[in-house]
Amino acid sequence: MEKKMKISFDKGLEARPAAMLVQIASMYDSKVCVETEGKTVNAKSIMGMMSLTLNHGEELTVRTEGADEADAIAHIERFINGQGA
């Protein structure tokens, strides 16, 4: 699955929301990747996520692949949209 999303956090995807996104992605067995501006990282890697330095309003693409891919992408979308973890 693939879905485009926009960062809703006022300060962007800084350390705390990046760590939360990693925790959410790690809850699922599916492979979860985040892509922006041609750079793709494993969403289960805190170092990878921190390397993206995404600001408020910037767009990213989340890709999931696996048995629970729909649940994973839906949970990440809720989080990215500011609806909690």
Could you explain how this protein is built, in words?
It is a single chain. The chain has about 80 residues and is an alpha+beta fold. It contains three helices and four strands. A four-stranded antiparallel sheet has the order 1-4-2-3, with helices on one face. Strand 2 (about 30-35) and strand 3 (about 40) form a beta hairpin. The longest helix has 12 residues, at about 15-25. The two termini are about 20 Å apart. The model has no long low-confidence stretch (mean pLDDT about 95).
Question: What does this entry show, briefly?
Answer:
The chain is of the alpha+beta class. Helices cover 34% and strands 26% of the residues.
Provide the succession of SSEs. Answer: EHEEHEH
The amount of beta strand, in percent, is 25-35%
Instruction: Give the neighbour order of strands across the main sheet.
Output: 1-4-2-3
Sheet bearing the most strands, described?
Answer: 4 strands, antiparallel
Helix fraction by DSSP (H/I, runs of at least 4): 25-40%
Number of strands: 4
Low-pLDDT residue spans: none
Structural class: alpha+beta
Q: Nearest-angstrom radius of gyration?
A: 11 Å
Q: How many helices? A: 3
- Overall mean pLDDT: 94
